[in-house]
Write a structure and sequence with these properties.
This protein is α+β, with helices and mostly antiparallel strands. The strands form three sheets. Strands 2-1-13-12-11-10-9-8 form an eight-stranded antiparallel beta sheet, with helices on both faces. A three-stranded antiparallel beta sheet has the order 3-5-4. A hairpin with a 3-residue loop joins strand 11 and strand 12. Helix 1 runs antiparallel to helix 11, helix 2 packs parallel to helix 7 and helix 6 crosses helix 7.
């Protein structure tokens, strides 16, 4: 009943809410679509894609494609960073924590950046407004640079690496992914997955890097990704390796977040994963702050349903449900 009430509350914020999926461990206990969205339709994750790039970085380090978190970016861009020692010393970790020190390409700078003829060069030309490792400066330019580094380090496109090393193991596929003018896939933005694929991505993290008994991500990468390195400029959330963390409904929650209401929430203590996607077109006037509505749905309805009484509201842990993904 509590979970049914949570889904009913979700219907109140649709549109723009387009899908809501809730899993307890490996069992999907709620799956609802709104405003014409279907299970097979890809959803643009927007910046929730950044958490995917974080996972790909962990895989690349584990496989030896990258030397580690302290590896500087200079050798990956020798021509663009020639004679700029400060920028050459920016590290992989600085990109993961949004502490590169470069002026942001997001927010008011986003339009000019994505209409430039070379996104990588434009991002690296930005002035240093802080030291590497300083304050958090949220920028899709940082994650795009990281995506280009992954492509160069693995000697394949970011999409191929992501599909072969991550999504194929989850039994799903990338639906679409924007490319920059040089053909590099957009690191940390504009990747489309189905809501079920997004839920599986969250379950991978809940299961400490394994899926169907296969190790995909090192468990310690998940621990590192969810530590607090900086305080986010958004709503006092904390920030790890391209993952947000915060307390909702009395529980510690790690989450990927994309513009317009794209989320996957992982609540380890409750063995809970929640995926939500939202339409980028259906935005009724007077709908209020849609992100706040989703966070309230999580904190005031879904998490209490999972908590209440003695965890009996949701099915038991690790009961598999084949959904033909």
């Amino acid at each position: 009943m509590a979970l049914a009430e949570a889904v009913a509350q979700a219907d109140e914020i649709a549109p723009p809410l387009a899908s809501l999926l809730v899993a307890r461990g490996d069992t999907t206990v709620a799956e609802a679509y709104f405003d014409g969205m279907t299970a097979d339709q890809g959803a643009n994750l927007k910046s929730a894609s950044k958490s995917v790039v974080s996972a790909l970085t962990g895989i690349a380090i584990a496989e030896g494609h990258l030397d580690g978190l302290t590896q500087p970016i200079g050798p990956f861009f020798p021509d663009l960073l020639a004679g700029q020692p400060r920028k050459q010393k920016i590290t992989i970790r600085n990109l993961l924590t949004q502490q590169a020190g470069l002026e942001s390409t997001s927010f008011g700078n986003y339009g000019a950046w994505v209409t430039s003829d070379n996104w990588v060069a434009d991002a690296l030309r930005r002035p240093m407004v802080d030291r590497p490792g300083g304050e958090m400066i949220y920028s899709s330019g940082n994650t795009h640079l990281l995506g280009v580094i992954l492509a160069k380090a693995t000697d394949q496109s970011l999409r191929t690496f992501a599909q072969e090393q991550l999504f194929a193991s989850l039994g799903t596929r990338i639906r679409s992914w924007q490319q920059d003018p040089q053909g590099y896939y957009f690191g940390g933005n504009n990747m489309a997955l189905t809501p079920r694929a997004l839920l599986r991505f969250g379950q991978l993290y809940l299961n400490r890097g394994t899926f169907n008994g296969r190790r995909i991500l090192p468990a310690d990468w998940i621990d590192r990704s969810w530590r607090v390195y900086v305080r986010s400029t958004y709503r006092d959330h904390q920030y790890g390796y391209l993952w947000f963390t915060h307390s909702f409904g009395g529980e510690q929650v790690a989450f990927a977040w994309g513009y317009g209401g794209q989320y996957v929430f992982v609540v380890p203590r409750l063995n809970l994963v929640v995926a939500a996607t939202s339409s980028l077109q259906s935005r009724p006037q007077g709908s209020g702050d849609h992100n706040t509505q989703i966070l309230r749905l999580l904190a005031e309805h879904i998490i209490p349903a999972a908590q209440g009484p003695e965890g009996t509201q949701f099915p038991p842990r690790h009961v598999r449900l084949g959904l033909g993904w």
